[in-house]
């Protein structure tokens, strides 16, 4: 299966084996053009590095730890596939851990990964993490860490995010334009970066369209919708208001499907009685009843860029003059759950 | 947060600290009643072992490697949550790897996990794995391995499975009883244990109901539905048959949602023109259009029992006289996608 070697690539492209080897490791010593040439040829010929051999040779573990809140979430599982596709092609193993939205488990995962000598970490914070000392200490000690999606404001490193403000703004404006006025927002704890940004986009869209912001239409789920009961309680509060919402903007995968489920159980017609838009990367959005309007994040690409930034930190630790925050745009996929105007 | 110690538990229950410690490690030296007492009290008091400290003390890594085909699959992500819930409470870390249905990556993951000194492995085979030498060698060297879901017939160790034959039999019989006669079966490669068993259950139900088995109604997807194109091609073949099926039994999460998607695209009425039943643990089955009849597997419980068996192998390596295969029953959740008789 793995018949092609670095030597074969070097011979074919008329380069030295050390150039090919460094190009494949994405080394900063090799120029972009040569890297592209080598990588494309390697891809074409199905070249695969041997991670164990690499690991023995340069005394690194050639592995990357990934800590996410949960894998049973379409956004995160797609993101991990993005991470793995690049990591694997560069000869790194990807070790996946779940924090289950628990600060304690996030800390335990971090300690474990460090004790097992991963070369770097990719992290999306748990919804219950407010203290960041476990990451700050590691960064001080020189451990490369890149944050994605749920990122800390106070730690300086590479970050990969989406423009949550804009995604939320566009979704809210879409609901307003389709005639909704009492738009509720179902979201995660406010100390998460993504929750703050999505709330801000929602508020700005209301303001720009002359609708007063009403705090009672915003519900925070402290476990990010992980607990069904929490989700249902928030929805029941909204539904039993004197003036219940005529639309809901849900801020995560789980919150969106939880919300849809509660609306079904209560026999509420979507979108006639309540329209629904959710931040979700669920693969079956168009197969739901009704087809769901979704704010979709480019999860695969985010994962690819996050790991690329991390591997750059790992392999060229002294070349970082300035950290980047890469921001991606979300896409609003309008479907029946928010289409048409209010009846 | 972690204020309660083993000493506190020992004092409260009037046991020695070493008994409590061994009970919490699920040691065979402690009887079941005492274990239950200790574990329940520990649970009640939110006792949490410190995996790093445990690891230093007994020179084991206190970690378990899990290799699954993919995490973007409801069955596997629920199963992993089952594994983690037990592993964490017994002081083990869970390290998750995806094979992406690739034999090569399954081997690479296995080698990596062994090189990082995990204490044992939990494995569900990739759809492209036919050669098992990488696992056989490890078992010979004494590495504890428990297989689940997609298990090898030829390796002797603990296994956790569902009764795929019965699950498939019941689903097929349900379709026959609702008036369908041309029932197609969309499945994974036949050398996977689950595919063989599901095919056998399907065939037996046809036979018991006097319907001749027709090989042209069975379609194999070699990547288990991971490639959309593969899935679509199989469906198109079925739809363009002179006598297209009036029902489909899909054998996995991805095959089921892929099939539903193709039926939607072709504007085929479900269940009137074609009824659909799928092996799937998707959380939104009842929110789909139409609500989907599903063969559901007790994924969480399977994960819990698999890790329990594995930890027993790890901690009491000499006490195994005979390996077990634990088999769970599936549940058929009948919903609109297969309800009512043919129009």
Briefly say what this structure is.
Chains A, B: Residues 4-58 form the HTH lacI-type domain. Chain A has 343 residues and is an alpha/beta fold.
Describe it.
Chains A, B: Residues 4-58 form the HTH lacI-type domain. Chains A, B: GO terms for molecular function: DNA-binding transcription factor activity; transcription cis-regulatory region binding. Chains A, B: Keywords: DNA-binding, Transcription, Transcription regulation. The structure is a homodimer of 343-residue chains. By secondary structure, chain A is an alpha/beta fold. Chain A has three domains: 1-48, lambda repressor-like DNA-binding domains (434 Repressor (Amino-terminal Domain), Orthogonal Bundle), CATH 1.10.260; 61-161 and 299-328, Rossmann fold; 164-297 and 331-338, Rossmann fold. Helices cover 43% and strands 15% of the residues of chain A. Chain A is built from twelve helices and twelve strands. Chain A has helices spanning 6-13, 17-24, 32-44, 51-58, 74-89, 103-115, 133-140, 164-177, 193-208, 228-239, 253-265, 299-315, and strands at 63-68, 93-98, 120-123, 145-148, 159-162, 183-187, 218-220, 247-250, 275-279, 293-296, 325-328, 331-333. In chain A, strand 1, helix 5 (74-89) and strand 2 (93-98) form a beta-alpha-beta unit. In chain A, helix 1 packs across helix 2 (17-24), helix 5 (74-89) crosses helix 12 (299-315) and helix 10 (228-239) packs across helix 11. At the A-B interface, helix 4, helix 5, strand 2, helix 6 and helix 11 of A face helix 4, helix 5, strand 2, helix 6 and helix 11 of B.
């Amino acid at each position: 299966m793995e018949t092609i070697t670095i030597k074969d690539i070097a011979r074919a492209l008329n380069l030295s084996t050390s150039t090919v080897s460094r190009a494949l490791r994405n080394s900063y010593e090799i120029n972009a053009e040569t890297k592209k040439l080598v990588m494309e040829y390697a891809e074409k010929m199905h070249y695969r590095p041997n991670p164990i051999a690499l690991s023995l040779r340069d005394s690194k573990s050639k592995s990357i730890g990934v800590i996410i809140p949960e894998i049973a979430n379409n956004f995160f599982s797609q993101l991990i596939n993005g991470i793995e596709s690049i990591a694997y092609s560069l000869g790194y193993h990807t070790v996946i851990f779940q924090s289950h939205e628990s600060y304690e488990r996030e800390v335990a995962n971090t300690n474990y990964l460090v004790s097992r000598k991963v070369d770097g970490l990719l992290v999306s914070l748990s919804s219950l993490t407010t203290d960041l000392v476990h990451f700050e200490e590691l960064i001080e000690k020189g451990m490369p860490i890149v944050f994605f999606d749920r990122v800390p404001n106070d730690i300086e490193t590479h970050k990969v995010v989406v423009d949550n403000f804009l995604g939320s703004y566009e979704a809210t404006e879409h609901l307003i334009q389709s005639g909704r006025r009492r738009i509720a927002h179902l979201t995660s704890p406010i100390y998460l970066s993504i929750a703050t940004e999505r709330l801000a986009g929602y508020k700005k869209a209301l303001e720009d369209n002359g609708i007063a912001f009403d705090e009672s239409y915003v519900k925070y789920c402290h476990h990010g919708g992980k607990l069904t009961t929490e989700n249902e309680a928030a929805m029941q509060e909204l539904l039993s208001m004197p003036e219940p919402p005529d639309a809901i903007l849900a801020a995560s995968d789980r919150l969106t499907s939880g919300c849809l489920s509660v609306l079904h159980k209560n026999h509420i017609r979507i979108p006639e009685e309540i329209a629904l838009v959710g931040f979700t990367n669920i693969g079956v959005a168009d197969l739901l009843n009704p087809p769901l309007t979704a704010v979709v994040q480019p999860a695969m690409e985010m994962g690819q860029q996050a790991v690329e930034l991390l591997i750059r930190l790992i392999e060229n630790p002294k070349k970082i003059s300035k950290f980047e925050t890469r921001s991606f745009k979300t896409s609003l996929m309008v479907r029946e759950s928010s289409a048409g105007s209010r009846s």
